[in-house]
Request: fold
Amino acid sequence: MSPFELAIVLVSALIHAVWSVSIKGSRAPLAFNLIQAIPIAVLFVPLAASVELRALSASFWWLLAATGVAHGLYLYWLSLALERADLSIAYPIVRSTPAFLPLLAVPLLGESITLGGGVGIATVVAGMWVVQLRGGSRAEASTRAHDLRALTRGGMLYAYLTLATTVAYGLTDKALMSELATGPWTSPVPRAVFCFFALWLAGAVLFVPLALRKLERGVLVSVLRHEWRRATTASLISVAGYGLILKALETAPTSYVVAVRQSSVLFVMAMSVVLLRERPGWLRALGAGATVLGVVLIARSG
Reply:
């Protein structure tokens, strides 16, 4: 990765951490994420008007539909995980994508990984899994029980399902941006910004009905009344955060981009202590440090 690519991915990681803490801090994360779709939909209208949609290839639309499914399920399962588990436990699992993405990115996208880059990715993954040890929470008690119902109550099952969606959209988003980058572009709106709004709304097509079916009307109204400003702010910063990722994916290998972005684990650990009053313990702090070390190895070798 170039220094520029590394820098924008690290900034994106910080933004994603802030976004995740905002969701966890809500009284109802599922409703909070549903409200976030409103400003995205409103802003997409003038953006779409400046883009020659008919010039976009058929492959772009198929890839958009595929990544929309992944993003829709990601928002839904992430919301359920954060409703039931501590952020400092669920988040490292959700962000364990580098453990699995290279296994698919190399054969499917033709990417190559250097030895040093591979060690960096492995270090990131090891750090993320150490972070989830010794939490003493009901979520980890559920994991030890090896019971599907307990896992669901504790949020861990949803965390692992969310992990699966991050692997899926890590591949489809890269393919989508590669497809968009090869075609003509006359709009003043950057490709990455347009792509973010397009894939967010594609995900909302699946996420919104799933969320509405799950939510009680009173809960949604209450969150809308008391948290709409914070939800709107979270929605807008997510544009910047994931727009930077999409920009990096235009040129950088997916495996490296996804691995470096997992430095957000360190930011989340710090924020969960300061803002959410969680007590992660020394093992999780050690794991967060290992994550940063892995990012450094990727930067030097990738």
